[in-house]
Amino acid sequence: MDEIFFGWRTALLLVVAAQLLIAAVLLGLRRFERPANRLLAALLVVVTLTLVPQLIGFAGFYDAFPWLSFAPFQNDLLVGPLILGYGIALTTGRIPAIVWWLMLPGAIDFSYQTYWFLQPFETRWDRVGDFHAGLYWPLRNGLAVMLALFGLAGAGRAYWQHRRFLGDHSSAAAEFDRRWLPLFLGLSALTLLSGVIMVVIDHFIVPLDHYDSFAFHVVVALCFWAIGQCALLLQREPFPKLGGSQPSAESVASGRDWVAEARRLRARVQAEAWHLEPRLTARELARRVGTNESYLSRTVNQGAGVNFNRFINEIRVAHVREKLAAGEGAHDMLALALDSGFNSKATFNRVFKDITGQTPARVRAGLAAP
Fold first, then answer.
1. Which of 324, 68, 325, 59 minimizes the C-alpha distance to 335?
2. Residue in 27, 32, 69 with CA at minimum distance from that of residue 52
3. How many CB atoms lie within 10 A of CB 219?
4. How far is the C-alpha of 213 from the C-alpha of 148, rounded, in Å?
5. Does residue 240 fall inside a structural domain?
6. What is the rounded CA–CA span in Å between residue 48 and residue 267?
7. Does residue 241 lie within any of the structural domains?
8. Which one-letter DSSP state was computed for residue 3?
9. Tens digit of pLDDT for each residue in 110-132?
């Protein structure tokens, strides 16, 4: 046992691994977004296990207990499918069958490692060592990178579809466009980049030992630590899901004056003060005006030249400007923003500047100037 030594590298990875597992447990126990949160919890567990060889290696466990070789800790073949599954489950509420099929290589790899781990240590490397180091491991690393690329691309596609859907169907799209899912994708992409660089250097430039690869593992560990913490902090309510009807030319009458229709719709929304409702949707507005969602979408898209989210937010911003011109909101801009249908000051500031080209404070100062 003299070989066991807990240095700073082991301590760092141990602290991060413990927090990853705690985040995984908390996400797995959440009562909302259960399919997505359980996939994210599984992803954090897989990453934690992938860090174990480094963690125990720096502590000297492989020297003290050489029979630990082939212990099935590392299974990064599951990372890509879990990223894909999480992105789709968060935006649609379901896990597609392709996610489970993409996990098959990971299951095969786990079985392979487990089989050789259970073989007698004295003959293990003699029987499979050359095949494992010379062919199997490089191929599985390349496959892990490809699966991660595919998973990240698929999750990114789900995000862009979701973003477009919210723009066409929800007046609260700005609350979700720049929040959790883009951050998740960005941090996942950073871990993928780190992994690709490590694989390229190891197989094509110079072989890396566990000391050389430590920095890459730290990047992965910290990125997924950030993912776990941000998921707990930012995801406190169900994510809006893809769904509803899509606009189609066949579902609405042709030859109409869509500009006039958009003006009438805008006037009706303002008269009824529906724009003051933070979570107004295209489906709900269509029901209130006595039409279908496809007709409403075409009225907004062709008549006003914007999507539904922009259409409602333009009415909200006009409402804010009217209140400021009347001397209201001079001392409490947040209250004015909330009363005008925005859910937060950050969203209000971003939308207001996007529509007017100026910050609310600057507009207020201009209106107050003699």
1. 324
2. 69
3. 17
4. 19
5. no
6. 56
7. no
8. T
9. 999 999 999 998 888 888 888 98
Q: Provide the CB-side half-sphere exposure for 171 (13 A, CA).
A: 26
One domain, residues 109 and 194: yes
> The tokens of 364 are what?
């207020």
Tokens of 131: 């095949």
| Residue 254 maps to a domain | yes
Q: Is 368 left (phi over 0), alpha (psi -120 to 50) or beta?
A: alpha
The single residue listed with the structure tokens 């700073």 is 8
What pTM did the predictor assign?
0.87
> According to the model, what pLDDT value does residue 265 have?
95
Per residue in 190-224, pLDDT (tens digit) is: 999 998 898 888 878 988 888 888 999 999 999 99
CA pair distance 195, 312, nearest whole angstrom: 43
In a domain, 188, yes or no: yes
Tell me the pLDDT tens digit for each residue of 92-102.
999 999 999 99
Return the closest-CA partner of residue 142 out of 95, 104, 195. Answer: 195
The number of distinct structural domains making up the chain is 2
Cross-strand pairs, 281: 170
Instruction: Supply the range of the domain harboring residue 300.
Output: 249-368
| Alpha carbons 24 and 232: distance in angstroms, whole number | 10
Q: What is the DSSP string of 193-219?
A: HHHHHHHHIIIII----TTTTHHHHHH
